[in-house]
Each structure stands twice: as C-alpha cells, then as structure tokens.
Amino acid sequence: MTADLRALRLTVLAGDGIGPEVTGAALRVLEAVLRPVGITLEIGPQLIGGAALDATGDPLPEASLSAALAADAVFLGAVGGPAWDSAPVRPEAGLLRLRSGLGAFANLRPVRVWPGLERYSPLRAEVLREADLLFVRELTGGIYFGRPKGVAGNAPNRHAVDTSEYSEAEVRRTAELAFRAARQRRSRVTSVDKANVLATSQLWRQVVTEVGEKFPDVALEHCLVDSFALRLLQRPGAFDVVVTENLFGDILTDEAGALTGSLGVLPSASGGGEGPWLYEPVHGSAPDIAGKGIANPLGAIATVALLLRLTLKLEELAGLVEQAVGAVIAEGRLTPDLGGEESTESLTEAVLQRLPVGATA
C-alpha cells in the first residue's frame, strides 16, 4: 500500500454463526481509525461457507473469489457449524479454496497474553510472563492436501490412507517469511518438525537450515514437535517466531490458545503470495451463541490491527487498536466466554471509546 492511499477496498466474508457479529464489530473499529487519516472504507460483502452453501450450493461462489482477488484485503468472520455436517461439501472447503485462490501460503498467528487475562489461563501467571510469540504456519502442503485420500473397504476390514508431501519451494518461501518477521521482532526463529521420523520433516529441516544461513543476524533453533508442545506450556516466553508445517501448525496454534485462556482474543492473517492478505480471528463460528449478542469481538478487533500493520503499513494505528484492546481487558470488561458480563455491542463500544483518535462509530 502507498502512503497516499485514500480508500481501502475490503471484501468482507462474514460467514456463519457469530461471524457476522464479530465482523461487524471489527469493521466499526477499522472505520473509526481510518477516518481521521483520510482513508475511506469501501466494503464489498460476499458469501462463504455454510451461508454460501445454502444460497448457491457452493461454499465459495465464483463471485466471492473474484471479489476477494480484486480487493486490497479480505476480512473473514468464521465458517461452518453442525447445520452442515451432512452436506456433501463441507463449508470449510470454501476457506481452503479461498486461501489457494489468493496464493496464501502462510498463516501468521501472533499469541500474546494481555495483562488481565492471566487468571483465565490454566497456566500459572509466572509461566505466562513475557509470552509474546508469532506462529508462522505453512498452508499449502502436507497431509491436508495429500493423495490418495479416503476410507476404503468394509467392516471389519476398513482402512484409510493419507499422504504428506512437501516441496523445497513450499518450505523455503515459508521459512523466508518467518525469518523476515523475526528481524522485526527479537531475531529468533524456532523451526518445529518431526525430523527423527518423517521424511517431509527431514526436508523441512534441511531447507530451513539453508534459509537460516542467509539470515546470520537471526538465531535458529530446531525442535521436535512433541518436545515443543511441552516447552510451549512450560516456558512460552522463551520463543519468538515459530515456523512449522501445516498439520503441526494447526495443532500447536490451538494449544497456544491455552496461554490466553480463550481463542476468542487471538487474530490471524494468511498470505504471502501475490493476492491480497486474508484476515480472520482464530475462533470458530460458535453456533451455540450466534445471535445472542455475547460473542467476543476482541479477536476480530485485534485482527484489524494486523490488517493495518501488514496491508496498510500503518504501524501507529495498529498500535492504537492494540492499546485499546489491552485497556478494556485490563479493566475487566469481558464477554461471558472469559467470565464477564459484556455484550458484543458494549465491548465494541468500550474499545471505540478508548481509541486515542477519539472516534466513535
């Protein structure tokens, strides 16, 4: 993005469950911080997931993908839910196709423990001290995309096969992104694999090591996934940037939700290719509370900070949003998932009131 940007074209895929509620909250915050700097928000709503299946029979209609590709950035709420468990195509298939269509090969998931949330984590407060890490998860390879795939045979002789495959290019581009990110943080990378067993992990370790040689100012550590899973809960503050493959990244980033006590406060962004970045809170669609007005909007609002930082290069504004989120948490203003009594609306208003720009929407 250029410094003289006057409008942000944002394709919004609110999705299912609480997706529309938290997305609405996030857009109010985004508009509030952009208005004082003269940037207008041009919102183009489109369908994805179960909502798209119901309307078109496709979890990612062509119109949605085309709009996403034409945008400056894409904002996603959540997809899926039990209402589509028996559907011939899962709502989540739309998300996988969207990432592929955008060329999003890496997912960035920052994990920090906001002051005031320590008591909601199952870990001791002293363990959580200084926990501030960034996961970089590869998105396009690994077992999720392996072939052959499926269950065959009849009981009691059924069997299933999943294969995992990685190319050097897939590993290299993800590792390079992780090392560049580390240079903007504390210059440490931990690469997580299972190189003592898996051939894909042996390739992963070889390529990451080669990439690390091009970044002599960044310290590199290799760690087996089982060991890392334990260390993450023992001393999360020891890690800076963590880079890993698709399956391990999926599992470990959800484990990291234990640090904060709730997935509802975690943001994420997916990108790295030529297409626009895709922004989405980490949490799911939570259909059991959809429409009740109690969904936690903080993950979606924190995701706004990522958009400001990565797409618009507006670091100062990103910091203002994060400060406002931190302020309401420190004051104990929380939704029921964290033991509070705030509604989605009241918590969003509280964040808006704490923005130094003084904007309210």
What would you say this structure looks like, in words?
- With 361 residues, this protein is of the alpha/beta class.
- The chain folds into 2 domains: 1-112 and 263-361, Isopropylmalate Dehydrogenase; 118-261, Isopropylmalate Dehydrogenase (3-Layer(aba) Sandwich), CATH 3.40.718.10.
- It is 39% helix and 19% strand.
- The strands form 2 sheets. Strands 2-1-3-12-11-4-5-10-8-9 form a 10-stranded mixed β-sheet, with helices on both faces. A two-stranded antiparallel sheet has the order 6-7.
- Strand 11 and strand 12 (277-281) form a beta hairpin.
- Helix 6 (168-183) crosses helix 7 and helix 11 packs across helix 12.
- The mean pLDDT is 93.
Attribute tags:
single chain, 361 residues, alpha/beta, Isopropylmalate Dehydrogenase, two-stranded antiparallel sheet, 12 helices
